[in-house]
Specification:
Pfam families: Bac_luciferase (PF00296). InterPro entries: Diverse_substr_monoxygenases, Luciferase-like_dom, Luciferase-like_sf, NTA_MOA. The chain has 433 residues and is an alpha/beta fold. The protein has one domain: TIM Barrel, CATH 3.20.20.30. The chain is built from 15 helices and 14 strands. The strands form four sheets. It has an eight-stranded parallel β-barrel with strand order 1-2-3-4-9-10-11-14, surrounded by five helices. The chain has a two-stranded antiparallel ribbon with strand order 5-6. The chain has a two-stranded antiparallel sheet with strand order 7-8. A hairpin with a 4-residue loop joins β5 and β6. The longest helix has 19 residues. The radius of gyration is 22 Å and the shape is globular. Bound molecules: flavin mononucleotide.
């Protein structure tokens, strides 16, 4: 039994769009994708498995980075369609009671007041189970949908995010916690002396405030963040309650990444235990280890036979058109991006074919639920914490059940993950251990 269990969260890759279609276990995924029921089913299954939270990924543009055309993206339903995660989030919260629900909202697309108001509303409606996946966007195409020619420069986006974050927090706290008095005898619903303007006048944003609603159950939402570049990591260490990472390079790189985030959090005067670093992975499970390995081999063969499907993501995140790239030509040192810098840094020196062969995230786990649980235990003991972010880019109900009803109970039997939630609020559960 470990001193501290670890956390599990889910990354809803591809956002509120087509999750799986045209494959053996897709079901009606190609036509029913706009029905929120799949997400409600997933949230309920993960709550049964005692996951801390589920992220709804997002971006708001139709990509054309690969082949300079929408064609491949629309044809394969890759990264498009995507609908608004903040409309889906309250439904998932309504049909669950404990799991945290984390929509993705971008600081370069929202105005701070609008975002603070939306998140405050969601936290009230979910009774304290709302998080915010803080992103800065990564494509000029998104910026062009919001009236600009280009996305702001990479590090500048994080400077803006720092200021956006401070303003949003001021708005969330513009009503003191006891501003609502509900005194029927004096006819006083609220005490106006406890409601304050924020009068924020920053480099990028201005806002008078106050927010036009009282503090929500958590006050501030749970902050989730994924920046992996040096500047991204600083932003995360300053603000995030949970950092999600796809860092590659094995257990050593994971240990180093977590140590960096924790040390930087401490520099900001924070308790490093208040920042839970979760590593992305997509375990491949079978009844037996042999079956799981055979499944992984089939997945690899599929990826090699359909390289375009993997390259679509690589292109849209880096802005590099891999339709014009030789699959066996290594990505040179000179490659740069204003998009996902950590991803490109990890791709340099490798060929697209090598990248495609690799599984999702930081580490591969392949085996029966019991084998994978044992491997996860070993990795977490070495890394020191704090858990895993499960993701799958071809997501169907069968996979969700393999994780929720196969892997999660195997982890619980070993005392590695929680068997119940200790609190009603998302942040309290996340910081429980
Ligand atoms: C696990 C994970 C999930 C992410 N989810 C989103 C998302 O939903 N929307 C988005 O625009 N960016 C998303 N990103 C991108 C990050 O927010 C960030 O822009 C990216 O990691 C590049 O940051 P960097 O340049 O600091 O490395 C995600 C990244 C990772 C690793």
């Amino acid at each position: 039994m470990p001193a501290r269990p670890f956390h599990l969260a889910w990354f809803g890759a591809g956002g509120f769009g087509v999750k799986s279609w045209g494959r053996t276990w897709s079901g009606r995924g190609g036509s029913d994708w706009a029905d929120p029921q799949l997400w409600i089913d997933i949230a309920q299954a993960l709550e049964r498995a005692r996951f801390d939270y589920i992220i709804i990924e997002d971006s708001s543009y139709v990509p054309d980075a690969y082949g300079s055309s929408f064609e491949a993206y629309v044809r394969s339903a890759t990264a498009t369609p995507k609908m608004d995660p903040s409309v889906l989030a309250p439904l998932m919260a309504h049909f669950t009671t404990r799991i945290g629900v984390v929509p993705t909202l971008s600081v370069t697309e929202y105005q701070p007041y609008m975002l603070a108001r939306k998140i405050n509303t969601l936290d009230h409606m979910s009774r304290g189970r709302t998080g915010w996946n803080i992103v800065t966007s990564s494509s000029h195409r998104a910026a062009q949908n919001y009236g600009r020619d280009e996305l702001f420069e990479h590090d500048l986006r994080y400077d803006m995010a720092d200021e956006f974050f401070d303003l949003a927090c001021a708005l969330w706290e513009s009503w003191e916690p006891d501003a609502v008095v509900l005194d029927e005898e004096t006819g006083t619903w609220g005490d106006h002396t406890k409601v304050h303007t924020v009068d924020f006048d920053g480099k990028f944003f201005r806002c008078r405030g106050p927010l036009n609603a009282p503090q929500s159950p958590q006050g501030r939402p749970v902050f989730v963040q994924a920046g992996g570049s040096p500047r991204g990591k600083r932003f995360a260490a300053r603000s995030a309650n949970s950092v999600i990472s796809g860092v590659e390079g094995g257990v050593g790189a994971m240990t180093q990444f977590r140590a960096d985030v924790r040390a930087t959090a401490q520099e900001f005067g924070r308790d490093p235990d208040d920042v839970k670093v979760l590593f992305m992975t997509s375990p491949v499970l079978g009844e037996t280890d042999e079956e799981a390995h055979a499944k992984r081999e089939r997945q690899q063969r599929f990826a090699e036979a359909h390289p375009e499907l993997g390259l679509l993501h690589l292109s849209r995140h880096s802005g590099i058109d891999f339709a014009r790239w030789d699959l066996d030509e290594p990505i040179p040192e000179t490659a740069t991006t204003n998009g996902h810098q950590q991803m490109l840094a990890q791709a340099i020196g490798r060929t697209p074919r090598e990248i495609l062969r690799k599984g999702t995230g930081s580490l591969e786990f392949v085996g029966s639920p019991d084998t994978v649980a044992a491997q996860m235990d070993e990795v977490m003991q070495e890394v020191g914490g704090d858990g895993f972010l499960i993701a799958n880019f071809d997501l169907n109900r069968r996979y969700v059940s393999e994780i929720a009803d196969g892997l999660a109970p195997a982890l619980q039997r070993r005392g590695l993950t929680r068997t119940d939630y200790g609190s009603a609020h998302f942040r309290d559960n996340l910081l429980e251990f």
